[in-house]
Amino acid sequence: MSNASQGFVIWFTGLSGAGKTTLAQLLEPRLRAAGLNVEMLDGDVVRTNLSKGLGFSREDRDTNVRRIGFVAHLLARNGVAVICSAISPYRKTRDEVRAQIGPGFIEVFADCPLDVCATRDGKVEMYERARRGELKEFTGVSDPYEPPLQPEVHVRTQEEAPDESARRILDFLASRSLLTLDAIR
What pLDDT is recorded for position 116? Predict the structure, then answer.
């Protein structure tokens, strides 16, 4: 039996280009196939629609992450499996969101070296501009990224295929009785 009726939040964190959105997009149909109500909250999409006007200062980034966390909390408490994909660079703010959501918060660290992230599709020019100083407050280049100390799931996206990382996350969800693996095979 699944505990998914109470909802939960899969919170991807990692550098730009680490594979957060790729993994989120792999998980979404698999969770739906398991019979769960699923909603994805991508950091860039939320920034455009819910946090328009925010910049990239620490305060603005924290505000964006808190807004994503608040929406995720509302959805999860109504039985939705929420997948959040946001850089969320500061540990303290992620911990605030964890406290708000409670035991249904599942932090997934998409760990990938900066030099690898900077070579991935759609990221090369961004990282080059950040290194030239044209993009200010760019996470990992001119602004810090604080990796999680004890994420529930730690995937190393430069070492494993996306399907392998997704499988590890699904295995974790099954270990917490949030879904059954039979439902997604």
Answer: 94
Query: What is d(CA 159, CA 37) in angstroms, rounded to the nearest whole number?
Result: 31
Edge to edge, the sheet with strand 38-42 lists 38-42, 81-85, 8-13, 105-111, 153-156
- pLDDT of 41-70, one tens digit each? 987 777 777 666 677 778 888 888 999 999
pTM of the model: 0.91
What does DSSP assign to residue 139?
B
Half-sphere exposure of 146 (CA within 13 A, CB side): 11
Q: Which amino acid would we find at residue 121?
A: D
CATH class held by domain 4-184: alpha beta
Question: How far apart (Å, rounded) are the C-alpha atoms in residues 112 and 159?
Answer: 9
Catalytic residue among 88, 142, 175, 177: 88
Give the model's confidence band at 133: pLDDT under 50 very low, under 70 low, under 90 confident, else very high: confident
Asked if residue 72 lies in contact with residue 82, where contact means CB atoms within 8 angstroms, the answer is: yes
Q: Is 16 a catalytic residue?
A: no
